């Protein structure tokens, strides 16, 4: 475990000043990040094969982590395509998946994701579920802040809904016109709903963009969760994580 150098944190690995815990969903509480990667890979490779011909280069794990992970769906499409020097029209939010627009590609990905979840269900990380229970037992309030527009279905399916006091998801972000991660808007909205200052809340994120959002929002403690290995741990630290763990169970000491 890599931690900050200031020695903070004793209660559940958090400073005593923390009264609210704000969790990302995919990759932190639930193992849906792997399902998201599959859906993104299939939809991007489908588009790239059709439009790049002999220059086809598949969507990679590094692409997912750099350009898509933790971002709102349309932002992920734009960022990845920009990395391949591809620009598409925005399109209508309800665009059919077959259209060559940012929104259509995002909608195709979401349809694939939902089909995977419907067939295979959603797995939770047992260490995260135990930590979530410990956080609530310690009297902290719990929020979920996620770019996913499917958070309600995932929380209901996994039985986590009753453990969450505030939810700021992709639907809320769109309705309020908030900027997606790495901007801190979603986390700041959640803190506002709890009527606390950012310094009183901890952020738990597996995505570099999410950790950067917690750092930019000046939250009291930012926990990076490394489910990938390799250079990802250092990237989370560089983005502003106060501590990086492989699993939230490590924070219980």
* Gyration radius, in Å: 18 Å
CA-based shape: globular
Indicate the low-confidence ranges by residue numbers: 1-10
Largest sheet: 7 strands, mixed
Query: Helix amount, in percent?
Result: 40-55%
What does the average pLDDT come to?
91
User: Hey, roughly how much beta strand do the residues contain?
Assistant: 5-15%
Total number of β-strand segments? Answer: 7
User: What is the CA-CA span between the terminal residues?
Assistant: 11 Å
Instruction: Briefly note the structural class of the backbone.
Output: alpha/beta
Element order: H for helix, E for strand: EEHHHHHEHEHHEHEHE
Order of neighbouring strands in the sheet with most strands = 1-7-6-5-2-3-4
Keywords:
253 residues, seven-stranded mixed beta sheet, 44% helix, alpha/beta, disordered N terminus
């Amino acid at each position: 475990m890599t931690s900050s150098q200031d020695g903070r944190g004793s209660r559940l690995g958090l400073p005593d000043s923390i009264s609210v815990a704000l969790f990302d969903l995919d990759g932190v509480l639930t193992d849906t990040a792997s399902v998201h990667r599959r859906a993104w890979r299939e939809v991007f490779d489908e588009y790239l094969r059709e439009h790049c011909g002999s220059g086809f280069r598949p969507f990679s794990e590094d692409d997912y982590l750099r350009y898509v992970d933790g971002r709102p769906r349309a932002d992920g499409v734009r960022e990845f395509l920009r990395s391949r020097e591809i620009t598409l029209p925005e399109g209508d939010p309800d665009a059919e998946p077959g259209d060559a627009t940012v929104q259509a590609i995002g909608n195709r990905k979401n349809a694939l994701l939902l089909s995977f979840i419907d067939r295979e269900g959603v797995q939770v990380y047992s260490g995260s579920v135990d930590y979530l229970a410990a956080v609530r037992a310690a009297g902290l309030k719990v929020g979920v802040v996620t770019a996913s527009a499917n958070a309600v279905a995932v929380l209901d399916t996994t039985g986590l809904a009753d453990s969450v006091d505030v939810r700021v998801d992709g639907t809320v972000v769109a309705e309020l016109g908030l900027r997606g991660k790495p901007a801190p808007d979603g986390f700041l909205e959640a803190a506002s709903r709890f009527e606390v200052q950012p310094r009183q809340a901890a952020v738990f994120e597996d995505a570099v963009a999410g950790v950067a959002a917690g750092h930019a929002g000046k939250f009291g403690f930012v926990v990076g969760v490394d489910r990938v290995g390799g250079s990802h741990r250092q990237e989370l630290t560089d983005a502003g994580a106060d501590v990086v763990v492989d699993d939230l169970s490590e924070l219980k000491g």
